[in-house]
Every structure is written in C-alpha cells, then in structure tokens.
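Thread amino acids onto this structure.
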C-alpha cells in the first residue's frame, strides 16, 4: 500500500534552518510528481512546493521562494524540503503528497514545524 511518512520537524528559532524528509513506499516513486503543503493553526492548507518525477522542475509558493528548496532522491524513495531563514509565520504542520493527474491522491500524516524564540 502507498505510504508517505514525513519527518524532520521540530522547534527552531527565527532565522534557523530545518530539513524535512518524506519517505515513500508502496509505489514507483520515480514516476510521480510530489508536493509539500502546510497548514498553520486556524488557517487553510497551503501549497508550498512541487517537484517533477525526475526532479528537473520545481515550483514554489511566493511566501517561501528563495528560502526553501525542494529536492528528491529517487534511489532512496525520499523527497526533501530544506527550509532556511525560517520565520514565525512558517509555523505549521507540513505534509507531503503524491500527485496523480494534477490532484493529490495520497497524503502523509504531517510533521510539526514551530518557529519561535
């Protein structure tokens, strides 16, 4: 069965960095576009970044462009989100998704990121 498991969240000070991972199993990871989303308390879920199956194309929300980097290692069936210059407004639960026909057909359980001094 398809599984997506996020990890790497935690508490970090403003200006700090974190790297999130999304470990995938149960499908041929290298053939799917993948995405990161986040949801802050009291807010709607927000798209953060996308990466194509081969990793050659990436896209970012304006709110994270220049600070976050999405990447993947298809040999390890893992996607990453490197987050630099973190701000309190980046505090959220971060989710990875698998994309099928432009829609998200599977979601992970999420990992909490808290940016606070």
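Threaded sequence (117 positions):
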């Amino acid at each position: 069965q398809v599984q997506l498991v996020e990890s790497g969240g935690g508490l970090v000070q403003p200006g700090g960095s974190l790297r999130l991972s999304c470990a995938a199993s149960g499908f041929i990871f290298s053939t799917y576009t993948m995405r990161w989303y986040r949801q802050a308390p009291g807010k709607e879920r927000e798209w953060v970044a996308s990466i194509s199956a081969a990793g050659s194309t990436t896209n970012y929300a304006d709110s994270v462009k220049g600070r976050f980097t999405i990447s993947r290692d298809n040999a390890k069936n893992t996607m990453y989100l490197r987050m630099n210059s973190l701000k309190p407004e980046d505090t959220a639960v971060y989710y990875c998704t698998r994309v099928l026909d432009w829609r998200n057909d599977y979601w992970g359980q999420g990992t909490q990121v808290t940016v606070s001094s």
